[in-house]
Predict the structure.
Amino acid sequence: SQKIEQNSEALNIQEGKTATLTCNYTNYSPAYLQWYRQDPGRGPVFLLLIRENEKEKRKERLKVTFDTTLKQSLFHITASQPADSATYLCAPSGAGSYQLTFGKGTKLSVIP
Amino acid sequence: NAGVMQNPRHLVRRRGQEARLRCSPMKGHSHVYWYRQLPEEGLKFMVYLQKENIIDESGMPKERFSAEFPKEGPSILRIQQVVRGDSAAYFCASSQGAGLDTIYFGEGSWLTVV
């Protein structure tokens, strides 16, 4: 069955450093992968989508990579700030799929 | 531009009662999805609806749960005879189209069964 693993349930980093979050998937060949941010008591907010034929995507301080050989996506936040503290969810999806399958998320804490 | 609106935000029900959760999609969106987030679990897909049609309910428990998206009015997720295990956050999302269209989530309805 499909399995999505987000390594590290929790990640603590110092303000200003780069946070790197990992999403691994097995028994799956997603056509694209999305990253969301979720704050406590709130709904997920879409951040970035990367397609299988894209190696890297950037948006401001965010960078996502997608390695279909390793079956892995990395999510980077550069120059991290305390306001970046949240849980980050990855969701790989098949082509034409409307159904998102989420990992359990990584809780990021950026320490001032 | 209002986002996806869910109500109630918090709902407490006694075992055996019914819970009704409402979702108004973003303006112009005709695709609605319901997801459930159990404590310490990831978000799980429940059902996908378009106006007056259930497209995919493969994630819905077979009993006690139902969903609708009428021609007029919000989408409703109904849970009959609630049990403690139904305590969770229920998120609605909407999109303009299906597939690769970005979906936008509401703030969730947090159901507690006592």
Summary: Chain B touches chain A through 29 residues (CB under 8 Å). The first strand of chain B starts at residue 5 and ends at 7. Residues 61 and 93 of chain B are 19 Å apart (CA to CA).
